[in-house]
Amino acid sequence: MAQYVYPGDLTAGTLAKSSDVNARVSGLTAAVNNVDGTQLQAGVVALSHLTASLAGMVVQSGVLPASPLAYQPWIDSGDGALKIYNSATSAWERRPKITISTTATGAPTTNLHAAGDFHLDSAYVLWQCTATGTPGTWQCASKIGREFEVANLVSLTSPMSSTATAAAGTANLVHSVVNVSSAVTYEFEVTMYATSGGTAYAGLWDWGTGALVAGSTVNTTATGVNVLRASSIALTAGHFYTLALWTSNASYAAQLTQARVVGVL
Q: Per residue in 85-106, pLDDT tens?
């Protein structure tokens, strides 16, 4: 029957107290190995993450101790991922990690990441790593194929009208856009119609630059309600945007009930 060994000799098949690990170890045979397969030398302690849990472990030649305390989860200093020991495969397994940025949009551009990792950027867009590397290969994983509202410029039950014949911003409908993500396609959408004989125009006005956002203008000659959308417009984070509504002829007012900026993923 195995017995505890106090300061003195430690032999294969005996049990040792954790307090005895630093005691004088002598009289060892070549058959007694460290947990990493190397020979256990006098005064040598087992792997650093095992020393705290050696009490009651059997010292066997080239075999890892079976105590679960020897396999506590740990964080890999290389990429910050959690490692957990799988007793069925006798191997350490990496768990996917999640990183969060409060200042930058888009996928990570630095550090080592592995397939299966996730990243949440400052625009609340979720990214998934699909190939390990520095920084790895990423794809957008949230709201894929869906759209969301960035700014609701106006939404009315009765239409607003304009007889202006040139584009200009509407001061009381100004909205700010705080974050802009490279993963999002921005579009300008309106619900509008023209008065018979005229052409109704609408566009997204950048209050900071005092001009229409390039590619945002839509128009119609239809007198029935139309939902029109300008695709792939470029926004600037921190800028203020508003609606511009005008007509081809002051005698024929442009009519509008809704205008908004949407993001598509």
A: 887 888 888 888 989 998 888 8
Mention every residue, 6+ apart, whose C-beta is less than 8 A from residue 82: 73, 74, 75, 76, 94, 95, 97
Average pLDDT over residues 181-197: 91
Q: Answer whether 264's CB lies under 8 Å from 258's CB.
A: no
The CATH architecture to which 147-264 belongs is: Sandwich (2.60)
Residue type, 44: V
Domain with CATH 2.60.120.260 in the chain: 147-264
SS3 per residue for 106-172? CCCCCCCECCCCEEECCCCCEEEEEECECCCEEEECCCCCCEEEEEEEEEEEEEEEECCCCCCECHH
Query: By C-alpha distance, which of 159, 139, 137, 140 is closest to 148?
Result: 140
DSSP-H helix ranges across the chain: none
| 3-state DSSP percent of the chain in helix, strand and coil, to 5 | 5, 40, 55
By C-alpha distance, which of 208, 144, 207, 212 is closest to 171?
207
Cα 219 from Cα 95, distance rounded (Å): 52
CA–CA distance, 198 with 158 (Å, rounded to integer): 20
pLDDT in tens, 204-260: 999 889 999 999 999 999 999 999 999 889 999 889 999 999 999 999 999 999 999
Nearest of 137, 141, 164, 157 to residue 243 by alpha carbon: 164
